[in-house]
Design a protein that fits this description.
The complex is a heterodimer of chains A (about 400) and B (about 260). By secondary structure, chain A is mainly α. Chain A has 2 domains: about 10-265, ABC transporter involved in vitamin B12 uptake, BtuC; about 300-395, no CATH class. Helices cover about 65% and strands about 0% of the residues of chain A. Chain A is globular and about 70 Å long. Chain B has one domain (about 5-260): P-loop containing nucleotide triphosphate hydrolases (Rossmann fold), CATH 3.40.50. Chain B is globular. Classes of the chains: A mainly alpha (about 400), B alpha/beta (about 260). The interface between A and B is large, with 38 and 47 residues.
């Protein structure tokens, strides 16, 4: 059995986490770091939700940004136009204003609309798998991007809104290819922390439930799962619905942080999320969380060249800590790698080259190296709780030390 | 009285090939029957027809009088027909006990919301599933490895786990597709006693596809022999062994008579 806490503990921890982020961490962070932290949180929600489709059920969706954009535009439009109608201004009010109620409602609505789209997209997944499904999801994102470009121009005042004819409201006035701006910027670390926590909790409980187990069984062997009585089609669609809902929530947070453009539904963002999930390890919530946070923060952090080797160090520590076998080998690998990076850095300083400009290359290199060294992702299929279980030799997640078998020697 | 499983004249054709043609058999509660035949005779296809992987072109399949035709594979399993596979199909990254728990999913009364909010009912049911599965593992001698990944088990253990997993669906009929395939003589002896024990301990009837004559003849009360999709003989092991058609199917026709 996994660690069993009373079920009210986690929700309290989530609220405490969100409060801590907003009122303890934020004053220490500064504006720039705050924005990075929010982006990281949104990325975590996206990666953990995509992980439900790609990681649990083993389908391959590369259109996650579509659900993200649906949630973003829906929630953004609700808050923007509601604020315009009620207060005649889209200015963001404080956390304790009634605008927060609208924001929460808009976020949930954004999630639900995205979930409905997820259901629709989940249906072809009944017949398609692998590359074919991937192409469908990719196509969906691109269709949505084009549709968003064809929407009506944004209305900026209450008067315009009242005077608007039907043709200006359908398709919805969300800015077309110019983008959708001035959504009240009510997202903050509290909300991001709260929704990150909720997403993690739901993803975790789903995974550890009979439904999650069955989803993973589909990934492991679809024919056997079906033969063991698992309703494969229904669970595949549910995976899409769950994933799309939280992608929509992430979209809502994003909409209330920055401005939206149709590009947000495009495949570049979808690929970012896929990279996070693959990097983290398929099916691992811990992995998806770490990878999403790392990728987002690293992307900003690496603008500063001296930070390059910090990144390697951090990944090295995580990898050595959570890789049950071959720690020595792992340590040597990473020591060599860090030495290499450090060498390049010294050379760059000597020849006055700004490594920050090459950060995307460094970033891509990290991805390539991770895939070579650890094709299963940072965490493989493990969770952070597996590390706790290791202390009890009878509860080893894999391999031999239990039951008196000879321990596997890493090759 | 209607038999527990009544397979009546089922057949399927793939293009011009009649893979199974007019196959019938009956299973009574507590029965242990064998389905044998040369390679490519249509045995596994027959299992696939019974379990809803394929839909028969002709005939029907009734479990306790209820027609199973047109049901999807997971619905047939819920109706009480569970199978193992010729090539082991476990969930390799799931733990041994979780492999069994997946098989309990079809009888769950939980809702998704109940599972997410960890309702009292969900927690109780999860606990009883855990007990049930560990008890089942205990009977199969796998309890010590319950929390290890299924892929780490020895081959013979993986085969046993597959049988345990099929039993976790609470079946009325257990279909075993070549359970002895790839086993060494020692493991085959253990398998035979295991199958006898399953029959004694669980309220199931077993239909067994097997190439190993030692296993089939030692275990089964009745054997159906198929060749080219047709039943060529039915009877007790001793009769089957003497049946000229069976000998012909397995050994071929002597050259002078075929010419």
């Amino acid at each position: 059995m996994p660690l069993l806490m009373p079920r009210w503990v986690a929700p309290i921890l989530i609220v405490a986490f969100a409060v801590g982020l907003q009122w303890v961490a934020r004053p220490l962070l500064g504006q720039y770091a705050e924005r990075v932290a929010m982006d990281a949180g949104i990325a975590v929600v996206l990666a953990v939700s995509l992980n439900i489709v790609n990681g649990y059920t083993g389908q391959f969706s590369i259109g996650h940004a579509a659900f993200f954009a649906i949630g973003a535009y829906t929630a953004g439009a609700v808050t923007y136009y509601a604020s315009l109608l009620i207060w005649n201004s889209p200015v963001a009010m404080g956390l304790w204003s009634s605008q927060s109620v609208i924001f929460i409602a808009a976020t949930i609505l954004g999630g639900l609309v995205a979930a409905a789209a997820g259901w629709l997209i989940g249906l072809p997944s009944l017949r398609l798998r692998g590359d074919y499904l991937a192409i469908v999801t990719l196509g969906f994102g691109e269709i949505l991007r084009v549709l968003l470009q064809q929407t009506n121009k944004q209305l900026y005042t209450r008067e315009e809104l009242h005077a608007a004819k039907l043709g200006e409201l359908i398709p919805p006035p969300i800015g077309g290819s110019l983008g959708f701006i001035n959504v009240p910027k009510v997202a903050n670390l509290f909300w991001v922390g709260l929704f990150v926590g909720i997403t993690l909790l739901v993803a975790w409980r789903l995974k550890k439930s009979t439904f999650g187990r069955s989803m993973i069984a589909i990934r492991e062997n679809e024919i056997a799962a079906e033969s063991m009585g698992v309703n494969v089609t229904r669970l595949k669609v549910w995976a899409f619905v769950f994933a799309a809902f939280f992608a929509g929530v992430a979209g809502s947070l994003y909409a209330h942080e920055v401005q939206l453009t149709p590009q947000d539904a495009g495949f570049l963002r979808s690929f970012d999320v896929v990279i996070m999930v693959v990097l983290g390890g398929l099916g691992s919530i811990t992995g998806a969380t770490l990878a999403a946070a790392l990728v987002t923060v690293a992307g900003e952090w690496l603008r500063e060249p001296t930070h390059v080797w910090h990144l390697f160090g951090l990944i090295a520590i995580i990898r050595i800590l959570f890789w049950p076998t071959g720690r020595l080998k792992a340590a040597i690998w990473w020591a060599g790698l860090i030495a290499l990076v450090e060498g390049v850095r010294s050379l760059a300083i000597h020849y006055q080259v700004d490594l920050g400009e090459y950060r995307m290359i460094v970033f891509a290199l990290v991805l390539i190296l991770t895939m070579i060294l650890r094709p299963g992702g940072l965490m493989g299929t493990h969770e952070i709780t597996d590390a706790l279980r290791l202390r009890n030799p009878k509860r080893a997640p894999t391999g031999g030390a239990a039951a008196g078998e000879p321990t596997e020697v890493p090759a | 009285m209607t038999p527990l499983l009544n397979v009546n004249n089922i057949g399927i054709a793939f293009g011009g090939l009649r893979a199974v043609d007019g196959l019938s058999l009956q299973l009574e509660p507590g029965d242990l029957q064998g389905l044998i035949g040369p390679n490519g005779a249509g045995k596994t296809t027959c299992f696939n027809l019974l379990t809803g992987v394929y839909r028969p072109d002709t005939g029907d399949v009734r479990l306790s009088g209820e027609c199973l035709l047109g049901l999807r594979a997971h619905q047939i399993t819920r109706a009480g027909l569970a199978r193992t596979f010729q090539n082991v199909r476990l969930f390799p990254h799931l733990s041994v006990v979780d492999n069994l728990k997946v098989a309990c999913h079809l009888r769950t009364g939980q809702t998704l919301a109940g599972a997410i909010f960890r309702s009292a009912f969900s927690r109780r049911e999860e606990q009883s599933i855990d007990h049930k599965c560990r008890d089942l593992l205990d009977r199969f001698g796998l309890l010590a490895r319950a929390d290890e990944a299924a892929s780490g088990l020895a081959y013979g253990d993986q085969r046993r786990l597959e049988i345990a997993r099929a039993l976790a669906t609470d079946p009325k009929i257990l279909l075993l597709d070549e359970p002895a395939a790839g086993m060494n003589p020692q493991e085959k002896v253990e398998l035979k006693s295991l199958i006898a024990k399953v029959l004694a301990d669980f309220p199931v009837a077993i239909l067994l596809i097997e190439h190993d004559m030692d296993v089939v003849m030692g275990l089964c009360r009745q054997i159906t022999v198929v060749d080219h999709g047709c039943v060529i003989a039915t009877g007790a092991p001793a009769e089957i062994q003497r049946d000229p058609k069976v000998i012909e199917a397995y050994l071929g026709v002597p050259e002078e008579t075929s010419a």
